[in-house]
Specification:
The protein is α/β, with parallel strands linked by helices and 568 residues long. It is built from 20 helices and 22 strands. Helix content is 40%, strand content 19%. Helix 10 links the parallel strand 6 and strand 7. It has a seven-stranded mixed sheet with strand order 14-17-18-11-10-19-20. The C terminus is likely disordered. Helix 5 crosses helix 10 and helix 13 packs across helix 14. The chain folds into two domains: 303 residues, Aldehyde Dehydrogenase, Chain A, domain 1 (3-Layer(aba) Sandwich); 192 residues, 3-Layer(aba) Sandwich (Aldehyde Dehydrogenase, Chain A, domain 2). The chain is globular and about 80 Å long.
Length: 568
């Protein structure tokens, strides 16, 4: 007898759930730790993946979805290849209606089957990691090695943690309970005990708004959190990076159909640029969950307008580095130079604001003023970008006019420390590859640096003191959000004050780490993810029903006081 999806992946799921409580590093897809034999990590070769990727170009991408109205093609590779992939353009109302029809059967499947199928989807995604990396590379402009990290095994391990968390949270919901009255009784008569049952009720149709620069890294957690908790998902990619999520949807639909589930539990929603499909779906009365990672302006719009839904919005925001002092100045400058190179799109994972006192910072090479710090940073950037191989590894291709306009505007906002010059790519000479722009401004120029700038733009902000730097950080990040903050100091009191400021602002903090920041998939600490337990528990409600038990319960189920019913 063939085992079901949960039985097939039971060992891996149990291992991942244990890791949540023990802090163990379990990364079976990346092969970093744990028992890799519990999961098939046999990926297609890069040569096979290249052939499969090439076979997708210039053809319709068939999904057999409801409400198809034709085909739409919105992508163009910044590296010069012709994409020409036609995706099904579906009536949004038909997709929502199909998801609603699929919802009861998916809820009835139960958490064990849903979690098992989610892992099976991940397993199949893993076999196509190199193909997914090519899809990310050619739609987002990210360097190929970075695209592999953001789309391949490391991304899948990140999603596995969410599956395990959702599975564990659902396991906390008891199926049956019993109650008996205690204390005062009415008219001297003891009421009979009450039997009850509990169930996790999914909220409803979920919508995933695709991130243009990290479609899988930022998309898979929301997708699998909704699926495991029983919610069907409509995946709405960004128009310029559809393919990575389209492949994911196709695999999910195949797995669901093979398991006898309705494939419309997962659908793809693509529209022409300018159709405002994301806004239409996000405000549909039947859409009850929205996931989004990206610039704050659309996150704010979602929270104001998608009032019928639970919105999980992670703002990329004003990633900030606070510099006070260091005992390894060259490593600090070198690390910052690497990190500011890692943004070529509209969603920031690199530092935007570097705050340091105008009087300078204490280093092992003496005191360094912002002017000297900027000159050393610019010199290190020139060294890094002087070799074509390093350019190809570090710098992504520019994908849109919004980034080009941002570079031009930012260059006029202060003193340019390092100009954003065109760079040659050794493999794609026609690609628009540009170095990072670094501009020095004063703390009073808050109208400049207190908004999110797309693309490789960073500001050196001269403050009055380290206390002023912390105040600026707390105010700007608290208002506009961020994925992370970093602090560099040899003073324990400054580090403690920075920890408090980061808690106040609600962002991750890394201390005295220059080139290992948690927002970028290339980082060793990239799994310091901002979502907490509510990211899972907010996708379902615990509902109870109860009835009088006229006879003693022989089942041995737990019996609680009837007064506990008020807590339901």
């Amino acid at each position: 007898m063939r085992s079901g999806p949960y039985e097939q992946h039971r060992e891996l799921l149990e291992q991942a759930v244990r890791a949540l409580t023990t802090g163990e590093c379990v990364a079976p897809f990346a092969g970093l730790a744990g028992n890799a034999a519990t999961v098939d990590v046999g990926m297609r070769s890069t040569r096979t993946a290249g052939k499969v990727f090439g076979s997708l170009l210039g053809r319709p991408f068939e999904l057999d979805q409801p409400g198809e109205l034709g085909l739409v093609s919105t992508e163009s590779s910044p590296y010069g290849i012709r994409m020409g992939i036609g995706y099904p353009r579906c009536d949004p109302a038909a997709l929502v209606a199909a998801a609603e029809r699929a919802r009861p059967g998916w809820r009835a499947a139960g958490p064990h089957r849903r979690a098992g199928l989610a892992v099976e989807i991940l397993r199949r995604l893993n076999t196509r990691s190199h193909e997914l990396a090519l899809a990310v590379h050619h739609t987002t402009g990210r360097p190929l090695a970075s695209a592999f990290r953001a789309a391949g095994p490391h991304s899948q391990d990140r999603a596995l943690k969410v599956i395990a968390q959702a599975f564990a949270e659902l396991a906390r919901v008891p199926e049956d309970l019993g109650w008996e009255h205690t204390g005062d009784t009415r008219r001297g008569k003891q009421p009979p005990p009450v039997r009850g049952s509990c169930a996790a009720a999914p909220r409803g149709v979920s919508m995933l708004v695709g991130c243009p620069d990290y479609p899988l890294w930022n998309g898979l957690p929301g997708l699998f959190a909704s699926l495991v908790t029983g919610n069907p998902v409509i995946v709405a990619p960004h128009p310029r990076s559809v393919l990575p999520l389209a492949i994911t949807v196709r695999i999910a639909r195949e797995v669901l159909a093979e398991a006898g589930q309705d494939p419309d539990i997962v659908t793809l929603a693509v529209a022409e640029r300018g159709e405002r499909l994301h806004e239409r779906l996000a405000t549909d009365p039947d859409v009850r969950i929205v996931d989004y990672t990206g610039p704050a302006r659309f996150a704010d719009w979602l929270e104001r307008n998608a009032r019928q839904a639970v919105v999980f919005a992670q703002r990329t925001g004003l990633n900030t580095v606070i510099v006070d002092s260091t005992d390894d100045y060259r490593t600090l400058v070198r690390g910052l130079a690497v990190t500011v190179c890692r943004c070529s799109g509209t969603s920031r994972t690199s530092p935007q604001n570097i705050l340091l006192p105008a009087t300078g910072i204490s280093t092992d090479e003496g005191r360094k003023t912002p002017r000297e710090f900027g000159a050393d940073l610019g010199e290190e950037l020139n060294r890094l970008l002087g070799h074509p191989a390093r350019v190809a590894r570090l710098i992504g291709a520019i994908t849109g006019d919004e980034v080009r306009a941002s570079l031009a505007d930012a260059a006029r906002s202060g003193t340019v420390v390092h100009a954003s010059e065109p760079l040659g790519h050794p493999d794609h000479p026609g690609a628009d590859v540009r170095g990072p722009l670094v501009v020095r401004v004063a703390a009073e120029d808050e109208q400049v640096y207190a908004r999110e700038w797309p693309g490789p733009v960073s500001f050196l902000v001269g403050t009055e003191s380290i206390l002023h730097s912390l105040a600026v950080f707390r105010r700007t990040v608290g208002r506009h959000g961020a994925l992370f903050a970093a602090v560099h100091s040899t003073d324990p009191l400054v580090l403690a004050a920075a920890e408090t400021a980061a808690l106040d602002a609600g962002v991750h903090l890394v201390e005295n780490l220059a080139d290992d920041l948690p927002a970028d998939p290339s980082s060793a600490v990239a799994d310091l993810w901002g979502a907490g337990a509510h990211f899972v528990t907010g996708r379902f409600r615990t509902v109870r029903s109860w009835r009088r038990a006229t006879a003693p319960d022989p089942s041995g189920l737990p019996v609680l006081a009837a007064d506990a019913l008020v807590d339901a």
